[in-house]
Amino acid sequence: MTVEPGRSGENWDDLPRIAAGDSFDFACAGCGGCCRGRRDLVLSGYDLYRIARRLGLSPRIVAGAFCKSYLAPQTLLPALRLTPDPRTGNCRFFEGSACAIHAARPLACALYPLGQSIDPVTAKIEYYVQTPLCGVQTDGGRVLNDYLTDAAILDRAGIDARWAVVCTRLSEQLQAAADHPHFAAAVKRVERALYYDYELGDDFYPQFQQNIEILQPLLEKLLA
Ligand code: SF4
Ligand code: SF4
Fold this sequence. Notes:
Structural class: alpha+beta
Order of helices and strands: EEEEHHEEEEHEEEHHHH
Helix content: 25-40%
Number of helices: 7
Strand order of the largest sheet: 1-9-10-2
Distance between the termini: 27 Å
Bound molecules: iron/sulfur cluster
């Protein structure tokens, strides 16, 4: 599973991966370019939960107000993407020249201009640099691990890896049941488990684990 924050249509699988100690020549110029015209910002359940906590609204209300729900054509998973401001085409959290939810911004935003790829079996995480690189040139560049630490990406890496593994398994189940009469009901139930059944006062990860434990036998029964 690849987090694809990009805008240039690159083939992400072909980009060279960078190791934790590698440097890349980048410093954000604060131009806001990655917040304008963004129609590709797909949210994970953890992304939605973090935004919901930041706004003090339930995940379902945030999704209804700011996102479009759709069935991802390749994975057949229910997914959410942030919808842009219809007047400007910009992200609706882009206010003035800054992100109004900066501390709770989605993973794709925190990563940009990096991308992340997670092996769905081993949960190994790899990073790559999108090209052409935005920002300004630096002397000596940034070490990947420092960049990931500063952007709080390492703090959430375990959750993101588990999300990728679980979503891959669910995708396989849904693809195998694409013609089943209860397919639509199964998708709705998966969407609840991935995105909506979360109490904001409790940590995300234990709830995610519990949701998936409850979901699996339900899915098997529904799609039998
Ligand atoms: S969530 Fe914040 S960082 Fe991400 S595109 Fe929107 S304004 Fe930019
Ligand atoms: S990450 Fe790049 S596009 Fe986004 S504000 Fe910084 S320099 Fe601009």
